[in-house]
Amino acid sequence: MASQLRLRSALALVTGAGSGIGRAVSVRLAKEGAAVAACDLDGAAAQETVRLLGGRGSKERAPQGNHVAFQADVSEARAVRRLLEQVQACFSRPPSVVVSCAGITRDDFLLHMSEDDWDRVIAVNLKGIFLVTQAAAQALVSSGCHGSIINISSIIGKVGNMGQTNYAASKAGVIGLTQTAARELGRHGIRCNSVLPGFISTPMTQKVPQKVLDKVTRMIPMGHLGDPEDVADVVAFLASEDSGYITGASVEVTGGLFM
Questions:
Q1: Under CATH, to which class is 11-253 assigned?
Q2: Which residues form a coiled coil (predicted)?
Q3: Burial call 57-86: b when 16+ CB within 10 Å, e when fewer
């Protein structure tokens, strides 16, 4: 970790903060000095993340440096607007760092995938990132603040994967959305980048059969699955001014898989 607190004046909103990559990102940004608004569909999981950060875990007014948990379904526009209102009311400012980690899988082969499974994955993984990016950007522009928006995509969005047409489509959409947002928001001082994890040890990959994980691991030049902290390291860089001239980028964190 950097010796200086690169985010000591930042307020970071992290969605999907209750576990996996979202929790690791929350921990890393807090270590870099940011106040963290940790949001998850599972409010109790978000509160547990905040407890790990040493915050109160409730939506009371928070002095700078405190961390607060929020509950929201990012696939619902009204819920996302309410989330941004709550964060701004709690911290008296919009988040200057926004990291969208919320995501789900509903895997099946194309020939058998249900419309409901397609719709739900697109709603959370793509529409959710659109709604959060839009609401956060509107709050930053209206307040005249600069910011960094970081959207978690996936290497699967570039290369596809058996049984994941919905997930691959959603994550490919995140890349295009983020690149377009970067073009539109650069003049407002808002940078937008995406991170493309490979196979990371999270609750999501724990659902994958071990024989499949073993096969994937043999394909990774680094020889092992990644840790959530590997992704959090890249997010912290993109959130900080160390990446001040980087926008519209898609950073792969894969151990060399599919390079």
A1: alpha beta
A2: none
A3: beeeebeeebbbbbbbbbbeeebbbebbeb
